[in-house]
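Subject: sequence -> structure tokens, single chain

Hey, anyone have a minute? Need the predicted structure for the following. Not urgent.
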Amino acid sequence: MLRYTSRRILQMIPVLLGTTLLIYAMVFAMPGDPVTALFGDKPVNENVADQIRAEYNLDEPFIVQYLLFLKGLFVGDFGITFSGQPVIDVITRVFPTTIKLAFMALIFEMVFGIAIGVVAGIRKGKFFDSTVLMLSLVVIAIPTFVLGFVGQFVFGIELGWFPATARDASIGSLLMPAVVLAGVSLAYVIRLTRTSIVENLTADHVRTAKAKGLSGSRVTTVHVLRNSLIPVVTFLGADLGTLMGGAIVTENIFAVDGVGSALYDAILRSEGTTVVSIVTLLVIVYIFANLLVDLLYAVLDPRIRYA
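Reply:
Had a minute. Here:
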């Protein structure tokens, strides 16, 4: 297991380098001059503009800027924003909130998605199964920003059950944004779990377990559910990175001071260093989440062994 983990971590290095290079190239190719944009409607002072470009290495060729970014990345120096604040300070301020929001959404879709999917799969073709399939399809079809605005208006403003905004980042104020963020993923988890349960209910090992006289609950939990969770765990592992990156819409709707808001503001100000630094950390989270999924395969399926 240790050897497999080490090999997987080494494989992540070229993935990380390639991803950061692609992201940096996309930011570098963005139209407009970020230094000129700092002056707004005022006349551009070329001497001051040249000093700013030199300070932020914007006068260097692309490859030099990228190598300087990598050097800072490996020593924990993410650069300085145009406002003079270290990027690492921005990251340490916003990342805990987004991580909390993403994990709340992940737990919500894990608990309710798997539970509802299991019941729907066991009751295939019945009223509950048909209702779940219809409602999950409706949720998938509705964009996240629509769910956010409807939830904010109905439950936050009209009914007053939850705060309409979540600036304090408390668990209570993040509950509604977490539900909205997990909405589409919850529907996919339900449908994926339901399909896996239906397939495994007719598998040979399940029929053998029933023939041996095992109780229905043991057959479901040990032989059906355990094998059905493999594709679900794969989806959840990939979804953790998606939740953190996709929080940009939800965080702006509910005024959450998180990664999404910081990334949106950095894009508007054309702060390439801040954008690349935040996205790079999101990529690292995504990569390690997938590593954890690979290790969980051996727990869920005893046929898988990492020698």
